[in-house]
Write a sequence for this structure.
């Protein structure tokens, strides 16, 4: 590993996922190390800085909570690393409870193509999202009440969208959104969750980022396909 490259550690990840993830990263000159689940992983993390960890869920050796404590310790070389859990569909909801508790994202082990790459790229900061300016109509859950709003997109990935808006919406707020991508006849609709407020100094806009939870009908596929036509081959 060299200081000039990004370094990724896979922990206990199943072979079929490794075979999809490693070529995507190697193609962009990102170093990848795959380790079996064992307590030796803790020693590796103690001595080696990684930019991203991709971890199988559930993880028995070491336990996931113990691994996260070591990664997020103030003195850890990996304190600021992204952490992705890879889960099968049946355990996605269970794995999602670790988001915001040391884990940045949870992805399904069947993800491929643009959706998979965008999730990796978002946390590695190695590729921009696709910039696009479209209006998004929002239905925002505020306790027992709902509020409607209109925001303008800044960029979009297969996993979510950055929206420009003067509204101050707390992370964790659920929204329902509808938007139409350029050159697409049908709108995309579905649910999402506000995951963070924007950083005006870094991103140049006031607003918030929304993670897609469930895009209706073939919405997720159409977003992935639209992005795939605008980014390098995956």
């Amino acid at each position: 590993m060299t200081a000039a490259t990004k370094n990724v550690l896979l922990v206990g990840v199943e072979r079929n996922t490794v075979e999809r993830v490693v070529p995507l990263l190697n193609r962009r000159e990102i170093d990848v190390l795959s380790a079996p689940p064992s307590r030796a992983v803790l020693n590796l993390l103690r001595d080696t800085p990684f930019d991203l960890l991709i971890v199988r869920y559930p993880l028995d050796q070491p336990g996931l909570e113990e691994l996260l404590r070591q990664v997020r310790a103030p003195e850890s070389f990996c304190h600021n690393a992204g952490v992705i859990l890879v889960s099968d569909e049946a355990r996605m909801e269970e794995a999602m409870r670790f988001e915001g508790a040391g884990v940045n994202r949870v992805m399904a082990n069947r993800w491929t193509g643009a959706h998979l790459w965008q999730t990796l790229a978002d946390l590695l900061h190695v590729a921009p999202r696709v910039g696009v300016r479209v209006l998004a109509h929002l239905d925002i859950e505020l306790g027992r009440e709902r509020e409607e709003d209109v925001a303008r997109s800044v960029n979009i990935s297969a996993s979510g969208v950055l929206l420009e808006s003067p509204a101050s919406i707390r992370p964790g707020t659920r929204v329902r959104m509808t938007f139409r991508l350029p050159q697409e006849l049908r709108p995309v609709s579905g649910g999402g969750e506000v995951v963070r407020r924007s950083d005006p100094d870094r991103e140049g806009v006031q607003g918030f980022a929304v993670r897609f939870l469930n895009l209706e009908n073939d919405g997720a596929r159409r977003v992935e396909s639209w992005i795939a036509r605008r980014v390098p081959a995956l």
